[in-house]
Amino acid sequence: MSVKLRLSRIGKKKQPFYRIVAIDSRSSRDSSYLDKIGHYNPVTQPAELVIDRAKALKWLSDGAIPSDTVNSLFRSQGILHEWEMHKRGANAETIAEEMTRWQDLQLQRSKREEAKQAMEKRETETKKPAKSEAKAPAAEAPAPAPVEAPAAAPAAEAPAPAPVEAPAAAPVAEEPPAEARAPEEPAAEAPAAEEPAPEESAEPKSEA
Fold first, then answer.
1. Predicted pLDDT of residue 85
2. Does the pLDDT of residue 160 top 80, yes or no?
3. Tell me, what's the pLDDT at 200?
4. 24 contact partners, CB below 8 Å, separation of at least 6
5. Residue 25 within a domain
6. Is residue 128 part of a domain?
7. Mean pLDDT over the full length of the chain
8. Which of 6, 55, 62, 98 has the lowest tally of Cβ within 10 angstroms?
9. Other beta carbons less than 10 A from residue 4's beta carbon
10. Considering the domain boundaries, does residue 111 fall inside one?
11. Which residues, other chains included, contact 70 with Cβ-Cβ below 8 Å and sequence gap of 6+?
């Protein structure tokens, strides 16, 4: 039977909580497990991790295959390192000494990490007040008084030019009424007065 070491979730929604179990690899996710090895709570700060080392080493020696997540959890606790030493045939005393040294290294690494985080936090807190102080004087600085431009000297008043009277328009000749404009045609000449016949000479014509 192939056994797998994996997480089994039992937490509520948005509150994950996991058991670390040994289960038949052919079983469904909700099937009953063969053995409980520990539990893992990622919600707490720091995350809570409890593993029964003896059970974990037993299942590893029996050929159980850890999932990627369980493999990472075992590595963080030094279980895989201890298992490698068991496979190489190291005796119990050598394994104990090596694990003590490993734990010391992990403690030093943890302290360095904590010191680094504390220093970054201090730097962040120092930068925040500096920025706020830099902004405050800029906001409080009074606005410079506007510089008034010197008044321009009043230009010498040029004498107003005498108004030029427009020449009086020549009176428009009144057009004679239409009757006046049209030349009167000469009235038809009256028949010439008959000229008086020449008067007979009073003197009698001489008789021949």
1. 84
2. no
3. 46
4. 1, 2, 3, 4, 31, 34
5. yes
6. no
7. 72
8. 62
9. 19
10. no
11. 5, 6, 7, 20
Which tokens belong to 11? Answer: 């937490």
Judge residue 193's burial from the number of C-beta atoms within 10 Å of its C-beta, 0-12 exposed, 13-18 middle, 19 or more buried: exposed
Token pair in block for residue 55: 């059970």
The count of domains in the chain is 1
pTM, two decimals, is 0.51
Structure tokens given for 89: 């045939």
Contacts of 90 by beta carbon, 8 Å cutoff, 6+ apart: 98
- Tens of pLDDT along 15-32? 888 889 988 887 776 678
Mean pLDDT within 188-201 = 46
201: amino acid identity, one letter = S
Mean pLDDT of 92-103: 86
Report residue 125: phi and psi, to 5°: -70, -35
| Of the candidates 49, 57, 53, 20, the residue with the CA atom closest to the CA atom of residue 35 | 20
**Owning domain of residue 18:** 3-65
SS3 category, 58: helix
CA distance 75 to 81: 7
Q: What is the CATH number of the domain that holds 26?
A: 3.30.1320.10
Whole-number Å distance between alpha carbons of 100 and 109: 14
Question: Tokens at residue 131, please?
Answer: 């920025």
Note whether residue 17 is domain-resident: yes
Q: In the sheet that 48-51 helps form, which strands lie side by side, from edge to edge?
A: 48-51, 35-41, 18-24, 3-9, 65-66
Nearest of 48, 50, 42, 83 to residue 65 by alpha carbon = 83
